[in-house]
Amino acid sequence: MQLKIQPAQRAVTLGQYIIENRATVRTTAKKFGISKSTVHKDVSERLKIENPVLYAQVKNILEINKQERHIRGGLATKRKYSELSQKKKNQGR
Predict the structure, then answer these.
(1) What distance in Å separates the CA atoms of residue 45 and residue 54, rounded to the nearest whole number?
(2) Are residues 57 and 12 in contact, defined by beta-carbon separation less than 8 angstroms?
(3) In tens digits, what is the pLDDT along the chain, a chain of 93 residues?
(4) From its phi and psi, is residue 22 left (phi > 0), alpha (psi between -120 and 50) or beta?
(5) For residues 9 and 81, what is the distance between their CA atoms, to the nearest angstrom?
(6) Eight-state DSSP code of residue 5
(7) What is the C-alpha separation between 88 and 14, in angstroms, rounded?
(8) Which whole-number Å values give the CA distances from 1 to 26, 28, 49, 51, in the listed order?
(9) What pTM was estimated for this model as a whole?
(10) In whole angstroms, how far apart are CA 31 and each of 39, 50, 90, 93?
(11) How far is it, in rounded angstroms, from Cα 60 to Cα 80?
């Protein structure tokens, strides 16, 4: 879903998506087919000017995501090594 709209309106759209889905910058970027840098700039700079109330809500969600980041990373690492272990077991049969 590529967004071809003005940057200020795009910032509002991205902010609404982040709030509705409690999404991370990465998942938002993937959903809209734009870079993480663009999402971050839109919701941290443009949105602050365009819609300060929405900006505050998005900032809270992104702060929560930042606090949980190490947990998601640990789970991803655990999943990776669990899958590798399972592959080794299956190859030994």
Answers:
(1) 12
(2) no
(3) 555 678 899 999 999 999 999 999 999 999 999 999 999 999 999 999 999 999 999 999 999 988 887 887 888 898 999 988 888 888 866
(4) left
(5) 42
(6) S
(7) 42
(8) 14, 11, 25, 23
(9) 0.73
(10) 11, 22, 35, 40
(11) 30
CA 59 from centre of chain: 12
Rounded CA separation 34/32 (Å): 6
Give Rg (Cα) of the chain: 17
Residue 46 is classified by DSSP as: I
CB 28 within 8 A of CB 17: yes
